[in-house]
Write a structure and sequence with these properties.
alpha/beta; Rossmann fold; eight-stranded mixed β-sheet; seven-stranded mixed β-sheet; globular; DNA/RNA_helicase_DEAH_CS
DNA sequence: GAGCACTGC
């Protein structure tokens, strides 16, 4: 798929259809809604009815005894329920009270995100009248509060539970595992499902609860049904069962655009204004796909608000607020502030508001119907960010962001027939991402044949092959696909992508572990350079030059960190140099962790004291699969895949004379294929450090 | 001279 240039015209679009004749009668039934210029909505009164009918097929949740009864009878319970049903907070308490966490075992509840694990633990501890860390605890990376002897309910991140299997392969410290928010289908939740299926066969006394907000429960139930189909014909021998939990959310009215909308940013803004003029109290949440769209919508809304206050004195003020991941923390907090009396908040957000954050007081939701998604292409070894239609599950989730405190209303900027054509679920992440880290994790957990591993949704074979190839080139796997010792085993223990862990583990050999831990840490945090507007932007660029070196971006980052430490890690230094203090502090933390891990492998902290060559060779030992060479056409091409790529304009090497060979840390397919975080490399180093990978490829370069 | 959704170990 070709990239998009950022203008909405070139984006892939839903094929909107004109309403057919059949729909004409339906259209007449619509309540009297004035056309909002191009966008008109119809109310679909059948929505809630059809959802109820679906639910009738499933057993209905009654009380705690019902759950306990089912868990005694079945090994796996698939719990379907909307958010707000209290399953995440209540069910573990039921089980703890009923004595399921006895003999020093625990009930483990996984979450995809760190904040969820910690905040749920403290909430449940409150509800149980316990001290956090005693009966109820949590564990996330860098932070844990639980007692191995007294804790009965432990909330933890998915990734951490996988790591616990390294020391406790059958998870014997748990009597019940509850995987929560499984409908999000993160790589980790899919890996956990595959691994837990194996564990359940070996530990008949382990109970599993899979908790999901959507209706793909049957598929999961079948995956965990371990009944031997040959010896047992009766479904009464099933080992898994579905239970539906009713939610407590308010009804949500669904409106669809009658006609396809030509420009969903403009139409979202029009819809906001229409709601503001005709509808009652309540804040508005708008879903768009990216930062640029959000900023454009905010600008348009500000213009409209200006016009409003100029022409007619509106009783209610409109307060547009942007929300996306790279927004400074201070601005992000504004969306959580209480809406002033007599005002209406409009939060224009990316997908961050679909699951990661919850804003209270939202009544109206406007959904553009698209999402930006990362997609790994094993042919080119590139990641792309593509705008694709959302799934039905996403549409429901977005709609549900309103109606949490009062009846809600959602405006979908697409006709209803388009909704019907959406996929029920988005493809799980494991089917569309780089799997090299996941494969390494599975190998160290004893999964020798990755291709035959029972994934709930198998990833494309090519993605697995591509991951195995890179791991072999890095020396983590041997010819037969086994983990090498000690390099491969150690790499699997690092919570980092394989290129990074390889670089760190060989840094001792180059005598530069001090510098390499810094570089790895700086690459882990988000961009430390602040991007101010206007005059300040020019000053920021000049200041940045102090740190820049012709060896590339990684050494530049090293300079930034070294100066930061020399200054005494002060906020003042950061604001003077247009650097992000919080991110540098986080890099500092990460470096400490990496130094600690290296010490465990008896790799001492050493500095090569200003000699750059060992550092650059060490970088090359990890990142050689990401080499590009200068083609005679004047453009860079990748060694793997021979793709034409462009250094990103933020790179220090962008404006400098082009070196013959470069290494990149990141490649992304946008309007063009950009490579970022670059380091100059000598071709003879590549041949020396990775001859098997490199030699056969050098002939056709010149 | 670009501009990239979101997590996590």
């Amino acid at each position: 798929m070709s990239g998009h240039s950022g203008s909405s015209e070139s984006r892939p679009k839903l094929k909107f259809l004109k309403p057919s004749d059949d729909d004409a009668t339906w259209e007449q039934d619509k309540p009297d809604v004035d056309p909002i210029n191009a966008t008109t909505f119809v109310y679909n009164p059948y929505y809630s009815l059809s959802l109820d009918q679906q639910k009738k097929k499933l057993p209905i949740y009654q009380n705690r005894d019902h759950i306990i009864y089912l868990l005694e009878k079945y090994q796996t319970l698939v719990l379907v329920g909307e958010t707000g049903s209290g399953k995440t907070t209540q069910v573990p308490q039921y089980l703890a009270e009923a004595g399921w966490a006895s003999d020093g075992t625990m009930i483990g509840v996984t979450q995809p995100r760190r904040v969820a694990a910690t905040s749920l633990a403290s909430r449940v501890a409150d509800e149980m009248g316990a001290i956090l860390g005693d009966e109820v605890g949590y564990a996330i990376r860098f932070d844990e509060k639980f007692s191995p002897t007294r804790t009965k309910v432990k909330y933890l991140t998915e990734g951490l539970l996988i790591r616990e299997m390294l020391g406790d392969p059958l998870l014997r410290q748990y009597s019940v595992i509850m995987l929560d928010e499984v409908h999000e289908r993160t790589v980790n939740s899919d890996i956990l499902m595959g691994l837990l299926r194996k564990i359940l066969k070996k530990r008949k006394n382990l109970k599993l609860i899979i908790s999901s907000a959507t209706m793909d429960a049957e598929e999961i139930q079948r995956f965990f049904n371990l009944r031997d189909k040959k010896s047992s014909k009766s479904s009464s021998d099933d080992t898994s069962v579905i239970l539906s939990v009713s939610g407590r959310s308010y009804p949500i009215e669904i409106c669809y655009a009658v006609d396809p909308v030509p420009d969903y940013v403009k139409d979202a803004v029009k819809t906001v204004m229409k709601i503001h003029e005709t509808e009652g109290k309540g804040d508005i949440l708008v879903f768009l796909t990216g930062q640029e769209e959000v900023d454009n919508a905010i600008t348009l809304l500000q213009q409209h608000t200006q016009n409003l206050s100029d022409t007619n004195k509106k009783a209610m003020e409109l307060l547009p607020l942007p929300m996306y991941g790279s927004l400074p923390a201070r601005d992000q907090l504004r969306v959580f502030q209480h809406t002033p009396k007599g005002a209406r908040k409009v939060v224009v957000a990316t997908n961050i508001a679909e699951t990661s954050i919850t804003i209270s007081g939202i009544v109206y939701v406007i959904d553009c119907g698209f999402v930006k998604m990362r997609w790994f292409n094993p042919d080119t070894f590139t990641d792309s960010l593509v705008v694709v239609p959302i799934s039905k599950a996403s549409a429901e989730q977005r709609a549900g962001r309103g109606g949490r405190t009062a009846p809600g209303k959602v405006y979908r900027l697409y006709p209803e027939p388009e909704y019907e054509k959406l996929d029920p679920q988005s493809p799980p992440e494991i089917q569309r991402c780089d799997l090299s880290f996941a494969v390494l994790q599975l190998k160290v957990l004893g999964i020798d044949n990755i291709v035959r591993f029972n994934f709930p949704s198998p990833p494309p074979a090519q993605n697995l092959v591509s991951a195995v190839e890179v791991l072999f080139a890095l020396g983590a796997l041997d010819r037969s696909g086994g983990l090498t010792s000690p390099l491969g085993e150690r790499m699997a223990e690092f919570p980092l992508p394989p290129c990074y862990s390889k670089m760190l583990l060989v840094s001792g050999d180059f005598g530069c572990s001090d510098e390499i831990t810094t570089i790895a840490a700086m690459l882990q945090v988000e961009n430390v350079f602040q991007l101010p507007f206007g005059q300040a932007a020019i000053r920021a660029r000049i200041v940045k030059r102090k740190f820049e070196v012709e060896e590339g971006d990684l050494i530049t980052l090293l300079n930034v960190y070294t100066s930061f430490v020399k200054s005494g890690r002060t906020k003042h230094f950061c604001s003077q140099n247009f650097l992000n203090f919080k991110r540098l502090k986080r890099a500092d933390e990460m470096k400490k962790q990496m130094v600690k891990m290296l010490r465990r492998f008896e790799i001492p902290l050493e500095s090569c004291k200003g000699n750059l060559e060992p550092i650059m060779k060490c970088i090359a030992s990890g990142f050689f699969p990401n080499a590009v060479y200068l083609h005679h056409s004047g453009y860079y091409r990748t060694v793997r895949g021979d793709l034409v790529v462009y250094p990103h304009p933020t790179s220090v090497l962008y404006a400098l004379p082009q070196p013959q060979y470069l290494l990149f840390s990141e490649i992304i397919h946008l309007s063009q294929i950009y490579i970022r975080d670059l380091t100059v490399v000598k071709p003879e180093w590549l041949e020396e450090l990775a001859p098997h990978f490199y030699k056969k490829r050098t002939e056709h370069f010149h």
